[in-house]
Specification:
single chain, alpha+beta, Jelly Rolls, Arc Repressor Mutant, subunit A, 3 domains, 4-stranded antiparallel β-sheet, 13 strands, 42% helix, globular
């Protein structure tokens, strides 16, 4: 049997998994993260895997299991339920488990680039020596992290989901981890305040940019650069100024423009979908019905 390396990459980590891969974001145009989910065997006697350079969180999406972990020669164990969280340390680990429910076992694995965590720490005004620590416990509980993992899992299953939405989620998740799971100087220390009187003007500039580029894949970092703000600070002040997250705002403008085009032009539904930034007509129709209560064709016929 080949020797397990001490560390491996996120892309290579998949070869050490025992389960059947269900979802993967590897082929998506996502930045700074990879998400995979697996249907796991009901019993696994031993699974040896290297550590990971990227920050990796896992959660149980269905079923329940008795999970055991050998890290540094010591076995620890815990009974894991849906939304329980655990992490993969940057060191080789041995795992074994067996199901303790009648439901199939499935897991979600989220890998976040260390560079993104460092970038968000800088944006938050935290020092460069901060480390994320989750303690030695086999599992930890955090409803917000579990909800974010579930949202990213849903996005990975939806081929038409927006990169802006995913960017917003992963930046918020990194900020949450730094705020509550990092050590170094005070986690609540903030950087110098920016002149808030300039914020409304900057947000108006971003709104003008969004309106002029609805067909583009509008990433949170790109919008933040238009405002001259960090991604973390931009997301917070944008919601404060508009009452919506950047993703909600972009989606609303896209649907409003689509409705106008359905009324005023004879473009096909696919032409309109692509023209306002959707990847395909199917995803556009789902979002349009969610926003307007009817399909695009029904809306057009209604006049």
């Amino acid at each position: 049997m080949a020797r397990i390396p001490k560390l491996t990459t996120t892309l290579a980590y998949d070869r050490y998994m025992a389960g059947q891969r269900l979802v993967s974001s590897v082929d998506r145009e996502w930045r700074h993260l990879v998400l995979r989910s697996y249907l796991e065997p009901a019993r696994q006697e031993l699974l040896e895997a290297p550590g990971l350079r990227d920050l990796t969180l896992m959660t149980l999406a269905s079923g329940a299991e008795h999970l055991e972990r050998n890290l540094g020669g010591r076995w620890d164990s815990a009974d894991m339920r849906v939304n329980d969280l655990w992490f993969v340390p940057p060191a080789p680990v041995s795992w074994r488990w067996h199901s303790i429910s009648d439901e199939p076992l499935s897991t979600v694995h989220l890998h976040i680039e260390r560079g993104l965590v460092d970038s968000v720490a800088q944006q938050m005004g935290l020092d460069g020596s901060r480390e994320l620590r989750f303690g030695d416990a086999m599992r930890f509980h955090d409803p917000l992290i579990a909800a974010m993992l579930a949202a990213l899992h849903r996005a990975a299953r939806d081929p038409g989901d927006s990169r802006l939405y995913v960017d917003t989620l992963v930046h918020a998740l990194a900020a949450h981890l730094l705020q509550y799971y990092s050590c170094g100087s005070d986690a609540h220390r903030a950087g110098p305040a920016r002149p808030e009187r300039l914020v409304p003007r900057r947000i108006r500039r971003v709104i003008d940019y969004i309106r002029a580029n609805l067909a583009e894949d509008l990433a949170i970092a790109e919008l933040a650069s238009q405002a001259g703000l960090s991604s973390f600070h931009f997301a917070r002040v944008f919601r404060r100024e508009t009452g919506e997250t950047p993703h909600q705002f972009v989606m609303r403008l896209r649907l409003e423009e689509a409705a106008r085009l359905l009324r005023a032009t004879d473009q096909t539904v696919l032409q309109i979908a692509l023209g306002v930034g959707f990847e395909n007509a199917s995803h556009f129709s789902v979002q349009f019905k969610r926003g307007h209560g009817v399909t695009p064709l029904a809306y057009r016929l209604r006049g």
